[in-house]
Amino acid sequence: MKATIYDIAKATGVSIATVSKVLNNTGRISEATRKKVLNAIEELGYEKSAIASALAGKNTYTIGFLLPDINNPFFAEVARGAEDAAFERGYSVLICSTDHREEKERSYLKTLRHKRMDGLVIATGTTPRETLEELMDEGVRIVLMSREIPGALIGSVMVDNHRGGQLAAEHLLSLGHRKIGLIMEPLSIGSAHDIFRGFQKAAEGTDAELFVSKETGFGIEAGARLAGEMLARHEVTALFAANDELAVGVLQACRERGIRVPEDLSVVGYDNTILSRIVTPALTTVAQPIYELGRRTVHLLMDGIENENQPKNREVLEPRLIVRESTAPPPIHR
Amino acid sequence: MKATIYDIAKATGVSIATVSKVLNNTGRISEATRKKVLNAIEELGYEKSAIASALAGKNTYTIGFLLPDINNPFFAEVARGAEDAAFERGYSVLICSTDHREEKERSYLKTLRHKRMDGLVIATGTTPRETLEELMDEGVRIVLMSREIPGALIGSVMVDNHRGGQLAAEHLLSLGHRKIGLIMEPLSIGSAHDIFRGFQKAAEGTDAELFVSKETGFGIEAGARLAGEMLARHEVTALFAANDELAVGVLQACRERGIRVPEDLSVVGYDNTILSRIVTPALTTVAQPIYELGRRTVHLLMDGIENENQPKNREVLEPRLIVRESTAPPPIHR
DNA sequence: TTGAAAGCGCTACCAT
DNA sequence: ATGGTAGCGCTTTCAA
To answer: Among the four residues A2, A230, A291, B238, which has the most C-beta atoms within 10 Å?
Structure first.
């Protein structure tokens, strides 16, 4: 069987208390015995049980990451940033895809509690505030990503999506577009809401007309469908999509209809995921610092865990506009 | 504080042994006490500590998933399949991106052992055989994905990549291509090796000439670079890339050089990740059942865990050719 | 059908 | 500087 502290205590002739001390660098230990113990550990190939350690009151060094779908380029990149940050500091991350389904989220939350995660990062948009507060009351550290809850003292790292929406609008406006369609995610999602408000804000006071898709959605298919409806209904010269997947859908809808991008119609995406780079024409998009978003969120969380307090800071990262091939001035009409 | 079995034992007037039994549905318990206990559990909001349970000899219900990079469309989709399979059966998955770096892999393997994962799926191509055998000797269940180790009794689920390579070659050959370039991943990776052999095999006995990229690589950049070199050196009419990312790079290299796909050059990818669908022209590619690959691997692993034996089965999934827009007959030369 | 008690492997407090 | 020991919360014989 695997060696335990007892084995190494026996082998060294010291007590398990001493072994534990050298293991954790706590208390005072003479150089001599420390050496002895370290040797025995080496010899016996001893490895500390994180489980026992956790049960005895230490951390599990594992954090749970709730996100809508790991198989979504945006969240895959976020997750990578999160994982790297965690790895640097000896933590691991448990990925939980909720598919925007409340019951999956609840179920995951439950397991994460059972498994005594040291902390949680919540990157799904809709966890009820009470749930979060209950969790925090139980001592679970929580950090929100791309979301904040007004008045609740929960640390969060976000991108300034209001600004991001503005950037998109300003770009289109400055190209001369005056009839712009918006393909949105559900506005109940905080980030989508902010993007929308930012966009609106930038158009305010101009003579531009904004048309918002009646329905909302997430993936490529949805983008294509919503763009189709929009195009059938309004004479827009530009379409803004609240994420790159929707924008890719828009591009596909255009192709199907023989609409040239950007000559006939300009398209702007949001996120700057891998998709926006490889599509043709390459998408003009508002870049979120996605990887960094994941990193910072997890660092904030680990800081809280290690200082034994609930993170309360709010970090805001800046978006930036990336102009590629999908935008141009509107076509000249007779 | 959180309630423990002691609390609910006290509240019910039974022993903790009894509580444990109703919790686990073991032993015989009268309906009456079971009800009482269940009630108390409800009232006190009791939740079993997975940590304590694991220490006392049960499973952790957590598995580790070693892969090169979660932020890679292929592995993100695999991970999703894995996560879904795990979720269905009450397991969680710890994502470990190794970046093909041996020391990261070793480091992760160590942590996973400390944390007493119930099992591991190894989807990185290069873990030394001895390491795997050591792990298995320690009682860690392991399943390999897209890889197998001849002679070692390790369960695995793979795609028939030899067949996949053939499919790609046959398609190109049947279109009439006779000078074909191959942009490969390092052949030390089992799947790449199989693809290559399959491709070769299909070309054997025909008058086709194959040119293999001297260097190998992984991402889009590499694909573009290797395609550039290939195109400069050989007069090929088709390029096959061992994964879709490489193929996307090939497409970019073509665009830069004004080479039309598929009119001037046909391009075939491998994997059928999201990338191959959204690129222009849409990529003809060999589809791996990616999501299914993740699912099956994890199910195989969980079966082993629950039957308390190291999985030994070898499952093979079938690839299939998906013809899209990037392939056509070779151009007619004078 | 139920319970007492001995662990699981480690931490931390209190003595020495 | 070192050790004894009481937990941490649960599982699992073995008795009753």
So the answer is: B238
